[in-house]
Design goal:
CATH topology of the largest domain: Arc Repressor Mutant, subunit A
Strand content: 5-15%
Strand order of the largest sheet: 1-2
Oligomer: single chain
CATH architecture of the largest domain: Orthogonal Bundle
CATH superfamily of the largest domain: Winged helix-like DNA-binding domain superfamily/Winged helix DNA-binding domain
Length: about 130
């Protein structure tokens, strides 16, 4: 059975999720302190409620505070964000993504190139790791 498609996340929601993955658990105030271009506290609370509604985070009550934690595994969110990036900026083309990465300012190491070569060979054989 296929897993349900997770609703897409906005840029700010992705930033909040990244903070929660790094901290593992955080209050709205802790998330706010870690955000760039800080919005208001009430905006962060609202976005955490939206993320909870989408099934990405859960909260526990600790006294008067809510402590939020991610529910969706980071790898699943990463794959969703990558799919969105590839579709949006590279017309769905893996080749264009790899070409952009290899042609950029950050050149891969010999070890990374060897591993990429292995991944390509595995993909040709239909293997997954």
């Amino acid at each position: 059975m296929a897993e349900p498609i997770q609703p897409k996340l906005s840029r700010r929601e992705r930033q909040i999720m990244d903070i929660l993955y790094k901290l593992e658990r955080a209050t709205a105030a802790e998330v706010l302190a870690a955000l760039p271009d800080q919005p208001s506290y009430s905006t962060v609370r609202a976005q955490l409620r939206v993320l909870e509604g989408k099934g990405h985070v859960r909260h526990e009550e600790h006294g008067l505070r809510y402590v939020f934690a991610p529910v969706v595994p980071r790898e699943k969110v990463r794959q969703s964000a990558l799919r969105h990036l590839v579709e949006t900026f590279f017309e769905g083309s893996t080749e264009k993504v790899v070409a952009a990465l290899l042609g950029g300012n950050s050149k891969p190491s010999d070890e990374e190139l060897a591993r990429l070569s292995e991944l390509i060979d595995e993909a040709k054989k239909g293997e997954t790791k």
